[in-house]
Amino acid sequence: MVVKKMGNIFHIFLNSLKLNISFLMKSKSNFYFMFFLQIFYYVVQVIFWSGIFNISNSDFIKEPIKIYGFLVTLAFIDNFYLTFFGSGSLNMQNEIFKLSLDNYLIKPIHPLIYFIFFKPNLGYFPGFILSIIFLISYYYYFNINLFQIFIHILSMLTGVFILNAISFIYRISCFWTNCLVMIKNSNPSFKIMVRPLESFEGKLRLFLLFVFPALFITGVPSSILYNDIMKYWLLIGFIMNIWIWILVYFLWKKGVKRYLIISV
Protein backbone atom coordinates (compact mmCIF):
# COMPACT_ATOMS: atom_id res chain seq x y z
CA MET A 1 0.00 0.00 0.00
CA VAL A 2 2.81 2.40 0.95
CA VAL A 3 4.77 1.49 -2.20
CA LYS A 4 1.70 2.13 -4.36
CA LYS A 5 1.11 5.51 -2.71
CA MET A 6 4.76 6.50 -3.19
CA GLY A 7 4.47 5.43 -6.83
CA ASN A 8 1.43 7.69 -7.30
CA ILE A 9 3.25 10.61 -5.70
CA PHE A 10 6.29 10.07 -7.93
CA HIS A 11 4.01 9.88 -10.99
CA ILE A 12 2.40 13.23 -10.06
CA PHE A 13 5.85 14.77 -9.60
CA LEU A 14 6.99 13.53 -13.04
CA ASN A 15 3.86 14.95 -14.64
CA SER A 16 4.59 18.32 -13.02
CA LEU A 17 8.10 18.26 -14.45
CA LYS A 18 6.85 17.31 -17.93
CA LEU A 19 4.29 20.12 -17.92
CA ASN A 20 6.96 22.58 -16.82
CA ILE A 21 9.38 21.46 -19.52
CA SER A 22 6.73 21.59 -22.26
CA PHE A 23 5.75 25.11 -21.16
CA LEU A 24 9.38 26.26 -21.29
CA MET A 25 9.89 24.76 -24.74
CA LYS A 26 6.87 26.69 -26.05
CA SER A 27 8.38 29.96 -24.88
CA LYS A 28 12.16 29.73 -25.24
CA SER A 29 12.53 33.51 -25.32
CA ASN A 30 10.95 33.62 -21.85
CA PHE A 31 13.42 31.00 -20.68
CA TYR A 32 16.44 32.96 -21.94
CA PHE A 33 15.06 36.23 -20.57
CA MET A 34 14.62 34.72 -17.10
CA PHE A 35 18.19 33.43 -17.20
CA PHE A 36 19.46 36.87 -18.24
CA LEU A 37 17.57 38.53 -15.37
CA GLN A 38 19.11 36.07 -12.90
CA ILE A 39 22.63 36.82 -14.13
CA PHE A 40 21.92 40.56 -14.07
CA TYR A 41 20.64 40.32 -10.48
CA TYR A 42 23.85 38.69 -9.22
CA VAL A 43 26.03 41.09 -11.20
CA VAL A 44 24.23 43.93 -9.42
CA GLN A 45 24.86 42.22 -6.07
CA VAL A 46 28.59 41.91 -6.84
CA ILE A 47 28.78 45.57 -7.94
CA PHE A 48 26.92 46.66 -4.80
CA TRP A 49 29.16 44.78 -2.39
CA SER A 50 32.27 45.80 -4.33
CA GLY A 51 31.24 49.42 -3.84
CA ILE A 52 30.78 48.83 -0.13
CA PHE A 53 34.17 47.10 -0.14
CA ASN A 54 35.85 50.29 -1.36
CA ILE A 55 34.33 52.65 1.22
CA SER A 56 33.82 50.54 4.35
CA ASN A 57 36.11 49.69 7.25
CA SER A 58 33.99 46.71 8.32
CA ASP A 59 35.86 43.48 9.08
CA PHE A 60 33.25 41.65 7.02
CA ILE A 61 33.99 43.70 3.91
CA LYS A 62 37.77 43.51 4.36
CA GLU A 63 37.84 39.72 4.04
CA PRO A 64 37.13 38.26 0.56
CA ILE A 65 36.38 34.84 2.07
CA LYS A 66 33.39 36.43 3.82
CA ILE A 67 32.02 38.62 1.05
CA TYR A 68 32.29 35.89 -1.60
CA GLY A 69 31.10 33.26 0.86
CA PHE A 70 27.96 35.27 1.46
CA LEU A 71 27.37 35.84 -2.27
CA VAL A 72 27.74 32.16 -3.29
CA THR A 73 25.51 31.15 -0.36
CA LEU A 74 22.88 33.68 -1.43
CA ALA A 75 23.05 32.54 -5.07
CA PHE A 76 22.67 28.84 -4.21
CA ILE A 77 19.79 29.29 -1.75
CA ASP A 78 17.96 31.75 -3.98
CA ASN A 79 18.21 29.57 -7.10
CA PHE A 80 17.44 26.34 -5.26
CA TYR A 81 14.30 27.94 -3.83
CA LEU A 82 13.18 29.49 -7.13
CA THR A 83 13.77 26.28 -9.11
CA PHE A 84 12.09 23.76 -6.83
CA PHE A 85 9.81 25.64 -4.41
CA GLY A 86 9.26 29.27 -5.42
CA SER A 87 6.15 28.73 -7.56
CA GLY A 88 4.29 26.61 -5.02
CA SER A 89 3.14 29.29 -2.59
CA LEU A 90 2.34 31.69 -5.44
CA ASN A 91 0.24 29.02 -7.16
CA MET A 92 -1.56 28.33 -3.88
CA GLN A 93 -2.30 32.05 -3.50
CA ASN A 94 -3.77 32.23 -7.01
CA GLU A 95 -6.03 29.23 -6.33
CA ILE A 96 -7.27 30.88 -3.14
CA PHE A 97 -8.06 34.11 -5.00
CA LYS A 98 -9.94 32.19 -7.72
CA LEU A 99 -11.82 30.12 -5.12
CA SER A 100 -10.66 26.99 -6.95
CA LEU A 101 -8.76 25.33 -4.12
CA ASP A 102 -11.36 22.51 -4.04
CA ASN A 103 -9.60 20.73 -6.91
CA TYR A 104 -6.51 20.34 -4.71
CA LEU A 105 -8.37 19.36 -1.55
CA ILE A 106 -9.52 16.13 -3.23
CA LYS A 107 -6.11 15.11 -4.60
CA PRO A 108 -4.60 11.79 -3.37
CA ILE A 109 -1.85 13.68 -1.55
CA HIS A 110 -2.18 16.45 1.02
CA PRO A 111 -2.73 19.76 -0.84
CA LEU A 112 -0.11 21.58 1.24
CA ILE A 113 2.46 18.90 0.38
CA TYR A 114 1.45 19.23 -3.27
CA PHE A 115 2.02 23.00 -3.31
CA ILE A 116 5.34 22.66 -1.47
CA PHE A 117 6.96 19.94 -3.58
CA PHE A 118 5.12 19.61 -6.89
CA LYS A 119 5.40 23.05 -8.49
CA PRO A 120 8.98 23.28 -9.83
CA ASN A 121 9.99 26.09 -12.17
CA LEU A 122 12.76 24.82 -14.44
CA GLY A 123 13.15 28.26 -15.96
CA TYR A 124 15.51 28.96 -13.06
CA PHE A 125 17.44 25.70 -13.48
CA PRO A 126 20.37 27.21 -15.47
CA GLY A 127 20.89 29.73 -12.67
CA PHE A 128 20.80 26.89 -10.15
CA ILE A 129 23.53 25.00 -12.05
CA LEU A 130 25.58 28.18 -12.31
CA SER A 131 25.28 28.78 -8.56
CA ILE A 132 26.55 25.23 -7.91
CA ILE A 133 29.58 25.93 -10.11
CA PHE A 134 30.28 29.16 -8.17
CA LEU A 135 29.89 27.30 -4.88
CA ILE A 136 32.31 24.52 -5.85
CA SER A 137 34.78 27.12 -7.13
CA TYR A 138 34.59 28.93 -3.79
CA TYR A 139 35.20 25.72 -1.84
CA TYR A 140 38.22 24.95 -4.01
CA TYR A 141 39.74 28.45 -4.07
CA PHE A 142 39.51 28.98 -0.29
CA ASN A 143 40.44 25.36 0.58
CA ILE A 144 37.26 24.63 2.55
CA ASN A 145 37.49 21.20 4.21
CA LEU A 146 34.91 18.45 3.64
CA PHE A 147 33.35 18.68 7.10
CA GLN A 148 32.88 22.43 6.70
CA ILE A 149 31.32 21.87 3.26
CA PHE A 150 28.94 19.27 4.70
CA ILE A 151 27.80 21.58 7.51
CA HIS A 152 27.44 24.49 5.09
CA ILE A 153 25.27 22.47 2.68
CA LEU A 154 23.00 21.33 5.53
CA SER A 155 22.67 24.90 6.80
CA MET A 156 21.81 26.11 3.27
CA LEU A 157 19.09 23.47 2.93
CA THR A 158 17.76 24.64 6.29
CA GLY A 159 17.74 28.17 4.90
CA VAL A 160 15.84 27.09 1.78
CA PHE A 161 13.08 25.47 3.84
CA ILE A 162 12.80 28.45 6.20
CA LEU A 163 12.52 30.76 3.16
CA ASN A 164 9.80 28.51 1.76
CA ALA A 165 7.96 28.42 5.10
CA ILE A 166 7.99 32.22 5.37
CA SER A 167 6.68 32.42 1.79
CA PHE A 168 3.79 30.11 2.67
CA ILE A 169 2.95 32.03 5.85
CA TYR A 170 2.93 35.23 3.84
CA ARG A 171 0.66 33.83 1.12
CA ILE A 172 -1.59 31.80 3.43
CA SER A 173 -2.63 35.20 4.80
CA CYS A 174 -4.73 35.46 1.61
CA PHE A 175 -7.33 33.26 3.31
CA TRP A 176 -8.17 36.28 5.48
CA THR A 177 -7.01 39.31 3.48
CA ASN A 178 -5.86 40.36 0.01
CA CYS A 179 -2.33 39.57 1.26
CA LEU A 180 -0.28 41.35 3.88
CA VAL A 181 0.80 43.79 1.17
CA MET A 182 -0.63 44.38 -2.27
CA ILE A 183 2.60 43.55 -4.08
CA LYS A 184 1.60 39.94 -4.64
CA ASN A 185 4.97 38.74 -5.92
CA SER A 186 6.83 40.21 -2.95
CA ASN A 187 8.20 38.35 0.05
CA PRO A 188 9.35 40.12 3.23
CA SER A 189 12.27 37.74 3.76
CA PHE A 190 13.84 38.73 0.41
CA LYS A 191 14.75 42.12 1.90
CA ILE A 192 16.69 40.40 4.70
CA MET A 193 18.33 37.48 2.92
CA VAL A 194 20.37 39.79 0.66
CA ARG A 195 22.19 41.16 3.73
CA PRO A 196 24.78 39.29 5.82
CA LEU A 197 24.36 38.50 9.51
CA GLU A 198 26.77 41.32 10.35
CA SER A 199 24.26 43.87 9.02
CA PHE A 200 21.98 43.35 12.02
CA GLU A 201 22.74 43.91 15.69
CA GLY A 202 21.13 43.86 19.13
CA LYS A 203 17.41 43.26 19.53
CA LEU A 204 16.77 43.40 15.79
CA ARG A 205 19.18 40.50 15.21
CA LEU A 206 17.51 38.48 18.00
CA PHE A 207 14.09 39.18 16.47
CA LEU A 208 15.27 38.04 13.03
CA LEU A 209 16.76 34.88 14.53
CA PHE A 210 14.14 33.68 17.01
CA VAL A 211 10.83 35.37 16.13
CA PHE A 212 10.93 35.99 12.37
CA PRO A 213 13.87 33.65 11.57
CA ALA A 214 14.85 35.17 8.21
CA LEU A 215 18.54 35.37 9.20
CA PHE A 216 18.65 31.57 9.05
CA ILE A 217 18.08 31.80 5.28
CA THR A 218 21.49 33.17 4.23
CA GLY A 219 22.99 34.99 7.23
CA VAL A 220 23.59 31.98 9.45
CA PRO A 221 24.70 29.57 6.65
CA SER A 222 27.27 32.04 5.30
CA SER A 223 28.58 32.80 8.81
CA ILE A 224 28.92 29.06 9.47
CA LEU A 225 30.87 28.77 6.21
CA TYR A 226 33.59 31.22 7.23
CA ASN A 227 33.61 30.16 10.91
CA ASP A 228 32.15 33.37 12.38
CA ILE A 229 29.64 31.40 14.45
CA MET A 230 29.69 27.92 16.01
CA LYS A 231 28.35 24.82 14.29
CA TYR A 232 25.59 24.37 16.89
CA TRP A 233 23.70 27.12 15.03
CA LEU A 234 22.89 24.41 12.49
CA LEU A 235 20.92 22.57 15.19
CA ILE A 236 19.17 25.80 16.17
CA GLY A 237 18.27 26.23 12.49
CA PHE A 238 16.68 22.76 12.45
CA ILE A 239 14.63 23.65 15.53
CA MET A 240 13.49 26.94 13.99
CA ASN A 241 12.52 25.01 10.85
CA ILE A 242 10.33 22.65 12.84
CA TRP A 243 8.44 25.37 14.69
CA ILE A 244 7.90 27.56 11.64
CA TRP A 245 6.50 24.63 9.62
CA ILE A 246 4.22 23.77 12.53
CA LEU A 247 2.99 27.37 12.27
CA VAL A 248 2.50 26.95 8.50
CA TYR A 249 0.40 23.81 9.03
CA PHE A 250 -1.65 25.46 11.78
CA LEU A 251 -2.40 28.51 9.60
CA TRP A 252 -3.19 26.26 6.63
CA LYS A 253 -5.77 24.28 8.63
CA LYS A 254 -7.39 27.47 9.90
CA GLY A 255 -7.32 29.01 6.42
CA VAL A 256 -8.88 25.99 4.69
CA LYS A 257 -11.63 25.91 7.31
CA ARG A 258 -12.43 29.54 6.54
CA TYR A 259 -12.18 28.91 2.78
CA LEU A 260 -14.71 26.05 2.90
CA ILE A 261 -17.20 28.28 4.72
CA ILE A 262 -16.77 31.20 2.28
CA SER A 263 -16.80 29.10 -0.92
CA VAL A 264 -20.05 27.28 -0.12
Automatic annotation (TrEMBL):
Regions annotated as coiled coil: none
Membrane-traversing stretches: 31-55, 67-90, 122-141, 204-226, 232-252
Any Pfam family the entry gives: ABC2_membrane_6
Transmembrane as UniProt keyword: yes
Tagged with keyword Transmembrane: yes
Record keywords: Membrane, Transmembrane, Transmembrane helix
InterPro entries: ABC-2_transporter-like
Domain of life: Bacteria
Protein name according to UniProt: Uncharacterized protein
